[in-house]
Amino acid sequence: xxxxxxxxxxxxxxxxxxxxxxxxxxxxxxxxxxxxxxxxxxxxxxxxxxxxxxxxxxxxxxxxxxxxxxxxxxxxxxxxxxxxxxxxxxxxxxxxxxxxxxxxxxxxxxxxxxxxxxxxxxxxxxxxxxxxxxxxxxxxxxxxxxxxxxxxxxxxxxxxxxxxxxxxxxxxxxxxxxxxxxxxxxxxxxxxxxxxxxxxxxxxxxxxxxxxx
Length: 213
Fold this sequence. Notes:
The protein is mostly helical and 213 residues long. Helix content is 69%, strand content 0%. Helix 3 (40-62) packs antiparallel against helix 4, helix 3 (40-62) runs parallel beside helix 5 and helix 4 runs parallel beside helix 6 (134-151).
């Protein structure tokens, strides 16, 4: 099998080596790329790229019969699930801010169909060490299917659901505040609406949108 991201896959191979509780699901380079990518559509595509790399690395591991591979497969699937959840988080946050993510979501939906098929292929023909990572594979499939359902949902409807959930969360948070704390919070929010933060300067021409790839 030809590896599309050989250098990146070497980085992935080193990532699960430290099995500490604070092990991050992204490599240091990937974390920096996320920090450098603020536009939601571009960030969605970045996470899709990372998820595809995990699928590719998974297939690479499954093609090898080497000691300890089940640990690497387990961690790769776990990291993959976290990446898919990050896609949903980015999308929901963008919808809260009324950002148009239709271009990014379309590509996410297409990619998730492919990744579901790849994971189902593994589950359909379980390898000998399957029991050691069966749970995380099932979790990865469920997570991707749930995300795919969201990605194919009407964005208007999803925006309403996100707004309703945010309103419920806000009400719950405010319910534990004292009357004085609530008054201060409401005053701060009112002040923020009067003086919204200034937009960052841009070199884009009027009507021109940031690149999403």
